[in-house]
Amino acid sequence: MPMAAHLMEVLQLLIGGLANGCIYGLVALGFVLIYKASEGVNFAQGDMMMLGAFIALGLGNEGQLGLSFWLAVPLAIALMFGIGWTVERVVVRQLFGQPQFALVILTIAMGFVFRFIAGSIWGYSPLVLETPFAGVNLSLGGVVISLADLIAIVVTLVLTVALWAFFAFTKVGLAAQASSQNQMASYIVGVPVMKINALTWGLSGAVATVAGVLYATRGAIDPNIGLLGIKAFAAAVIGGLGSLPGALLGGLLIGIIEPIAGRYAPGELAIMSPYILMLVVLVTRPGGLFAQIHMKKV
Amino acid sequence: MRVVFKKSYDRDIDLHEHWLDRAKIAVLLAVMAALPFLVGNYYLAEAANTLIWALAGMGLMIAVGHTGQVSLGHAAFLAIGAYTDAGLMNAGMPFWIAFPVAGLAAGLFGAVIAIPAVRLSGIYLAIATLAVFVIVEELIIMLEPITGGVGGTMAPSISLMGISFDRYGALANFYWLVLGIVALVTWGYANLMRSPTGRSFLAVRDSEVSARSLGINVTRTKALAFGLSAGVTGLGGALMGHYIGFFNYELFSIFISINLLLVVTIGGLGFIQGAFLGAILITGMPQVIAILRDTVNASTGIDLASLPGIDTMMFSVLLIGFILFEPTGLYGRWLKIRTWFEIFPLARRDMFRRHKTYLKTERMR
After folding, report:
1. For chain B (length 365 residues), average pLDDT per consecutive 10?
2. CA contacts within 13 A on the Cβ side of A54
3. Is B364 a member of any domain?
4. Chain B: nearest CA to A279, how far in angstroms?
5. In this complex, do A242 and B119 lie within 8 Å of one another by their Cβ atoms?
6. Is residue B151 part of a domain?
7. Which of A133, A170, A275, B146 allows an S-S link to A147, with CB 3.0 to 4.6 Å?
């Protein structure tokens, strides 16, 4: 293969990987949001993404409710915000003050419930979300970029910056960080810990929906795409749980490594690659790339 | 209420506090051993399956219940146990060598993983084990000459000293073999928990800082516990391989890991008995669901079988219910009921009140 064509191919892989990575990053953002606010880990994040995508599909597709895409997506986001908020209010709040792994097991189980709900309503065969920009491609000097990929990248960047600003500058965001560091102390100084937790769950539901819709614009969805959450989890850990830019970076790394490994290594190795990367990061830097763990000084 | 009169300090760490406890265990063992004469082949096979799950559950219990290390990847150790055992036996080794080696291989693998992984706490460990699981699953597919890859492999039938323990041909023998192994492991486990090693597991679970200040090597203890846990689960996996007969990598899916977690959580974290109760529940539930499905179908005409995944859904709802309302599991509930009867008029409502620990960040350690 000539050098130039080879370079083009790699570039093409990189762009596809980047768009994929953005979606991993967005799901990872959802993890990180909840982790940042309550230091709980929501293993159902991938399934929330799946549910969000299906709700958008149910509202927007021709055969279903048939709303316009631009109306269906915000509606789905709002609905998922409500679902996330409700889940916190009804279920997760009961675990307040329990050991962390109780939440892990609970959310794993919740993921199965979500999958069952989606499967019973929309079935288990792959469905395609109808979008106004399906199949539109841009050509940039020999590299073909689909509009869906471009939108995924842009939306992710904007969302990450917005969320980062929310945690760094707004009063609510700071309160959320405080409550994750020490619930009792922040309760004493007047942070409404419970309300903040519910809000972050809602927010992470909304982010998951955005990820789900972006995922659906790039391919068919079925109730098992929630398993992507595991990969997104690896992304969050690589970046360092609790760091928003870290989550995005982790997602991008995984997104890029996967197609490259798939191109140059056997298929099984490509599937393993995100997890190997994660283990390497965990062993060398246990807190992730943007470590949030500090040794306590006595 | 019975009074135990202790005449020496050794009585404090006795396996059974009272001779009645010992008698109960003996009766239970006798009934289990007589089971082949009492029930038909179908239920005998189910009983063997339950015992195998209990064995695997006990393995996970060492890590989750007694050392406080959550693992989402124990299906990997099941797989290693099953493939090592089947591989060695296919290569001509007898069962009595292949079986312990399978446990040892899974245990060593677990310990090797644990050494870097125990630096990670709580949630990170859970994720790392999940990653290990995915890697092992792919490795199984890659190592086709040994594992049979996607096609799968066969666990040959067991025969010791000329006696057949074939799962189909001599089910009663197979059942007794499983029962014997499970009883031995349980006995060893119960004894381990009253030894200094077992106590140090509990100490690490309850507070790493205080364990360290008492002179316990936390890293070593955690690695040892994880290795033991993986080893016992590996033994369970080897038996599971023989029970299923022919298997490929799909037998050891992520759902098996989660089912195992279900066994220990619903059974009762931190109790050996919990692993058994959980195993009974997880192997009995599909039967109950099947019966329920038929009754619902016959009485209302609603065909539940048209909703795929309803089993998993019911398991999940059950799990959520237990986590929310009875975090100590079935065995914890049983303890509460028993105590209520034992001290009959004196039971108070807050006797088993849970302590709430308000979250302090993991980011400061």
Report:
1. 76 78 88 84 87 92 86 89 87 84 90 75 78 85 76 75 75 88 92 89 84 87 90 92 83 83 85 89 83 77 67 82 82 84 77 60 49
2. 25
3. no
4. 7
5. no
6. yes
7. A133
